[in-house]
Amino acid sequence: MQSKVKTTIYAILNEIMEDTIIGASAIDIINKIVVNTDSEEIKDIASKYNKVIIHDRPKEICGNHIPMNKIIEYDLSIL
Fold this sequence. Notes:
Layout: H1 2-25, E1 33-37, H2 40-46, E2 52-56, H3 68-78
Parallel strand pairs: 1-2
């Protein structure tokens, strides 16, 4: 049962992420959308959109246990 719940949650989150990309892509003044991830599923979804640039997350900040501040710090360092 727990697996079904987890699968459903991930499906909803992926849909939210995709809707966000679609919305941002429709805004003329946005010329690129950077997606930083270590998820192959997210990469597959994001790569369907022309404005998206995918940055593979370095191994030292991969996984669900990494604080979001570390990921944001990395994102800001590559922009």
